Every structure is written in structure tokens, then in C-alpha cells.
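sorry for the late reply, my laptop died twice this morning and i had to redo everyting from scratch. anyway the thing you sent over, i finally got around to it. pasting the sequence first so we're on the same page, its 160 residues, then the predicted structure underneath. double check i copied it right bc i was rushing
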Amino acid sequence: MSERAETIEAILAGSGVDYEIIDCDPALADTAVFCEHYGYSLENSANVIVVASKTGEKKYAACVVLAVNRLDVNKVVRKKLGARKVFFADAEQTRELTGMELGGVTAIGLPPELPLWVDARVMAHERIILGGGGRETKIICSPAIFEHTPNTEVVEGLAK
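ok and here's the structure:
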């Protein structure tokens, strides 16, 4: 087990939130492909998306939205970051900030200084599927896990 996987599992275990870590083929880790192949619902899957300011002081945030919704980058995220323009961090920037690959980014174990914004709709679910920290695993857990992640804010209307 990698150091990252051990850290994520320790955070999950220490939270008291029920969770399950499931293995997946790294080639099938992208949310829609994973759900179709393994028979999970997109409605119960959440994506962690890293965003960055394009102008001025460089600011980043990680956002958690249901896979069936779109992150409101141009209004809500831009305003919350205090930036004129915002973009989705690319694979290299995401890896630099989180240490994780796209398709496996999870909200658990992110650097504590990185703001984590969770769309309020995510919190309405009993269980959600998140990336596992790498493309080879997924995490199924209660959104109550976000009560145990640092620098976290539940945001109404973060996604459309």
C-alpha cells in the first residue's frame, strides 16, 4: 500500500464515517467509464475538480460536485476565489497541488491549505463515490466525511 493510500485510509478510519475502498482498473477510473463498467450510478458519484485563478495572485481551490452536475466556474467559483478569470487546473497542476492523478483525485488527504468547497447537493446523499487518491481505487462513504476534512466549506449553488 502506498503512503498516500495509507494516509487516506487512516483519515477515513479516524473519522468514524462508514466507508469502503474498492479496487478498479486504472484504465476505467474516469467517473462515467467507471460507473458504466462497474454498475454504479453517476447520481451517487462526485468529482473533485481543482480550479485556479488565471489573473493576479495565483489562488487554487478543490471543488466537490456530483458527476451529474457542472461546476459553476464563471460565477460562484470566480467570486469565491476573488478572481477575474478562473480555469480548471490541468493534469500537471493538479498533480503538483494534490499529488494525485486525474481520475483518482479525492477530497480526503488534500493539503490543509487548499480550500475544499463541497456543493450542498453532495451533502444530501446517503453515500457518495469519490476518487481513491489514485486511479486504482475508489472510496464509497457518507458525505459526513467532509466534517473531517480541513479548510472545508459546503457551498450552496457551487454546481449547476
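The domain at 3-155 is CATH 3.90.960.10 (YbaK protein).
thats about all i looked at so far, will dig more tmrw
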